[in-house]
């Protein structure tokens, strides 16, 4: 059981590190630069950061549901069908969004740190993933973020060259 606890704490540490990566990859850019698409038709740095923030909020709501109910069912999330996502991106300065995401990340990671071993095993259901537990959900979140952080890393390169 101690090994499983270490693995879960490692997942939470990984989420914290991924948040730090978002901070690093968006640092030093003004709002206009954060909104610039460096690959035509693909998300900008702020769109990617906001997507991570929205997905974090979605996953936290799923954790809530899994802790409150037995095996709740979840629908897939599609950002292209989410009017609130588009409104969020347009609603304020990019660095402000990043700071709010990071504050939410710290709070969410702290909350995950307090889950008991039994709570980590609480289950939910999804049409793509079947029945899964909170540990799977958090691990999925980390892999999802790593994918988008790679996109942020590569899309940031042209922005650095313009600022040089």
Walkthrough of the structure:
71% of the residues lie in helices and 5% in strands. The chain is mainly alpha-helical. The protein has one domain (2-163): dinb family like domain (Four Helix Bundle (Hemerythrin (Met), subunit A), Up-down Bundle), CATH 1.20.120.450. Helix 1 (2-26) runs parallel beside helix 7, helix 3 (45-68) runs parallel beside helix 5 (94-113) and helix 3 runs antiparallel to helix 7. The relative contact order is 0.20.
What's the shape? globular
User: Which second-level CATH architecture applies?
Assistant: Up-down Bundle
H/I helix tally: 7
Radius of gyration: 17 Å
CATH homologous superfamily, by name? dinb family like domain
Provide the domain count: 1
């Amino acid at each position: 059981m101690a090994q499983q606890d270490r693995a879960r704490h490692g997942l939470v540490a990984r989420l914290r590190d991924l948040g730090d990566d978002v901070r690093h990859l968006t640092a030093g850019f003004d709002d206009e630069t954060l909104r610039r698409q460096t690959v035509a038709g693909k998300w900008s740095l702020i769109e990617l950061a906001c997507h991570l923030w929205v997905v974090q909020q979605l996953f936290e709501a799923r954790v809530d549901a899994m802790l409150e109910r037995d095996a709740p069912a979840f629908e897939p999330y599609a950002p292209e069908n989410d009017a609130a996502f588009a409104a969020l991106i347009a609603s304020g300065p990019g660095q402000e969004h990043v700071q709010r995401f990071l504050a939410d990340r710290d709070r969410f990671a702290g909350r995950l740190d307090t889950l008991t071993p039994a709570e980590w095993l609480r289950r939910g259901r999804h049409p793509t993933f079947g029945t899964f537990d909170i540990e799977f959900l958090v691990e999925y979140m980390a892999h999802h973020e790593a994918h988008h952080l790679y996109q942020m890393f590569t899309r940031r390169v042209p922005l650095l060259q313009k600022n040089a």
